[in-house]
Design a protein that fits this description.
By secondary structure, the protein is mainly alpha-helical. 82% of the residues lie in helices and 0% in strands. Helix 2 (12-30) packs antiparallel against helix 3. The longest helix is centred in the last third of the chain and has 49 residues, at 73-121. The chain is elongated. It starts with a helix and ends with a helix.
Length: 122
């Protein structure tokens, strides 16, 4: 199976970076070179690239990924967790809006009651 069949177009930068990391690991195990810092830097770059790509998938890209026969499960897990995180953000935003609405309603009620109480007292 060729490399183009293993990865979708939007996954290719991640696959290339993972290949570089694996190549560095092999070179590092063959030689006495200490390249762990470079491997760590590339792994961090891979993680941020994965977050960036899978955090902004279009509907078509999600469908392509779901239908691909060799989808890496860790990427599916990341895409799913990213979708859950976005859903949670929307829910928190809605709850915050609801709380603000309640505070506004209470504040309006207190203002109207305070004017009624002033009229009764005077």
């Amino acid at each position: 199976m060729s490399n183009s069949q293993k990865y979708l177009e939007f996954e290719q930068p991640i696959a290339d970076l993972q290949a570089k990391i694996e190549e560095l690991r092999l070179v590092g195990s063959d030689n006495a070179l200490n390249i762990t810092e470079e491997i760590t830097r590339l792994q961090e770059k891979s993680k941020s690239l994965t977050e960036s790509i899978f955090g902004n998938l279009s509907s078509w890209q999600v469908a392509q990924m779901a239908r691909h026969p060799r989808v890496p499960t860790r990427w599916i897990t990341f895409a799913t967790s990213s979708l859950i995180l976005k859903s949670c953000t929307v829910i928190v935003t809605l709850l915050t809006m609801l709380q603000l609405w309640v505070v506004l309603r209470v504040w309006t009620a207190v203002r109207s009651w305070s004017s009624v109480i002033r009229k009764v007292v005077t």
